[in-house]
């Protein structure tokens, strides 16, 4: 049995004050979540506050990105050991906003995945196609290419230490969710692709869906056999909405 995971990606939102409120709100309501694992990924600068408020709770936290390097002259970057200093469990790699706005290649993302793993962090590897790619019928090819880059660098065993998030770019922040059937189809494809290299890793791999997931569509999505939780953007910025998704994952 794969334990569902619901992770909030707060992106570049909030202030110290609003993030305190959000953390406390989630903490107050977490007792309602029975079996799903819950995590939040705030902007880097709010990690100390997150650690302070969530230590001792059931809720895990993580970074939204990391450097491929462990230290050195890389202005503006944050290294895996720095995330360890604040007891992060997870780190998102290859989010489509990083791939798109920062031109992160599949190879770079694979290196970030490896850096996270080397430091004992659990990478959440984001994959997903754009609308043009879906319309051109290349969804599976795109997702396979993104996944294969990690497998090529690290072998499929590496995915045993990580999580995959399928995030169709056209569904992110658009209010246009993939149907449960559309999502399930790609999730099953991802699992089968990993199974080609390692059956056991594929069976244990948690594959999250991300893209306009809300409390009212979460149950149907997470109810699909290969959807093991969610990576939540907009709806993770309101404690009640986020908790609604977490309980739907139970
Ligand atoms: P939304 O839930 O806002 O569509 O964002 C999804 C996402 O990008 C999570 O990483």
Task: Please characterize this protein's 3D structure.
There is one protein chain. This protein has 250 residues and is of the alpha/beta class. The chain has a single domain, classed as TIM Barrel. Helix content is 44%, strand content 14%. It is built from eleven helices and eight strands. The chain has an eight-stranded parallel β-sheet. Strand 1, helix 1 (16-29) and strand 2 (37-41) form a beta-alpha-beta unit. Helix 1 (16-29) packs parallel to helix 2. The chain is globular. The protein starts with a strand and ends with a helix. The mean pLDDT is 97. Bound molecules: 1,3-dihydroxyacetonephosphate. Residues 9, 95, 167, 172-173, 210-213, 231-235 line the site of 1,3-dihydroxyacetonephosphate (13P).
Tag the structure with descriptive keywords.
eight-stranded parallel beta sheet; binds 1,3-dihydroxyacetonephosphate; TIM Barrel; alpha/beta; 11 helices; globular; 250 residues
Q: Distance between termini?
A: 13 Å
Strand content: 5-15%
N-to-C SSE string, H for helix and E for strand = EHEHEHEHHEHHEHHEHEH
Strand numbers in spatial order across the main sheet: 7-6-5-4-3-2-1-8
The rounded Rg comes to 17 Å
CATH topology: TIM Barrel
Number of β-strand runs: 8
How does CATH name the architecture? Alpha-Beta Barrel
Question: Helical amount among residues, as a percent range?
Answer: 40-55%
Shape: globular
Report the mean per-residue pLDDT as an integer: 97
CATH superfamily: Aldolase class I
Heterogens: 1,3-dihydroxyacetonephosphate
Q: Regarding CATH, which class?
A: Alpha Beta
Structural class: alpha/beta
- Count of domain modules: 1
Total number of helices? 11
Report on the biggest sheet.
8 strands, parallel
Question: Which regions contain 5 or more consecutive residues with pLDDT less than 50?
Answer: none
């Amino acid at each position: 049995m794969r334990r569902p995971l619901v992770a909030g990606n707060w992106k570049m939102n909030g202030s110290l004050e609003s993030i305190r409120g959000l953390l406390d709100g989630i903490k107050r309501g977490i007792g309602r979540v029975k079996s799903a694992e819950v995590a939040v990924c705030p902007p880097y600068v709010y990690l100390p506050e997150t650690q302070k408020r969530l230590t001792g709770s059931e809720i895990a936290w993580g970074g939204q990105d990391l450097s491929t390097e462990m230290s050195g002259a890389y202005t503006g970057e944050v290294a895996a050991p720095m995330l360890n200093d604040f007891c992060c469990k997870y780190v998102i790699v290859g989010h489509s906003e990083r791939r798109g706005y920062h031109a992160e290649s599949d190879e770079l993302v694979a290196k970030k995945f490896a850096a996270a793993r080397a430091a004992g962090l659990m990478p959440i590897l984001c994959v997903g196609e754009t609308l043009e790619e879906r319309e051109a019928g290349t969804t599976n090819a795109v997702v396979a290419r993104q996944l294969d880059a990690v497998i090529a660098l690290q072998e499929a065993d590496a995915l045993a230490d990580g999580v995959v998030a399928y995030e169709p770019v056209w569904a992110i922040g658009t209010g246009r969710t993939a149907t449960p059937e559309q999502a399930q189809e790609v999730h099953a494809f991802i699992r089968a692709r990993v199974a080609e290299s390692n059956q056991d890793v594929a069976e244990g791999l948690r594959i999250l869906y991300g893209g306009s997931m809300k409390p009212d569509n979460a149950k149907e999505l997470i109810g699909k056999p290969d959807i093991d939780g969610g990576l939540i953007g907009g709806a993770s910025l309101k404690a009640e909405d986020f908790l609604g998704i977490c309980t739907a994952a139970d």
